[in-house]
Amino acid sequence: MHSYYDGMVGVKIVDRPSYFEFTNPGTMRVSKESFLRGQYSSIRNTEIASLFRRIGVSETAASGGPRILNTVLQNNLNDPEINIDYEINTTRIRIFKTFAIDNQEKLTEPEKFIMSFASRNPNFSINDIVKDPQNHFGKHRKYVNSLVEKHLLSNEKIGKKYIYNLQKNNDYLNRVKHLKHLEDNLLK
Description:
7 helices, alpha+beta, four-stranded antiparallel β-sheet
């Protein structure tokens, strides 16, 4: 219902192991921030939107962006990529399914295992990794420390041991969510 069907490019949906990618003909009619905050919707095809609402697959409120925002933040995923190409008149949104690492091919196998473990376990100790049944690498202190140095993991000392978790990279999304929360509470 947001696509520009008279354009030269068709609607395209790509499902990859690490992300979904949606490409629509036509540029976004609201800013990226307005989309994520759900401030307002500017529907290009009102008849299609009306039909979608009647069969129950659409809503009137601009809820798609905030839904994506909440899912990303709750699951500690990388920020969605929103690209607008004015030359070919398209909008592409890539939504990651997992915690993606930019240079994952540069990680060792034990580091990849630790990052996978960290995506499944929000807070963990080195002992937790050692006890994991999928662990085939032995002790991991040097690999965990390497991931902390690469800013992929963060650590906090609690008592005598360190607790580790994924380094959160979505400060922008947290700010957008905070602004939306303030708007919602101030406009009541």
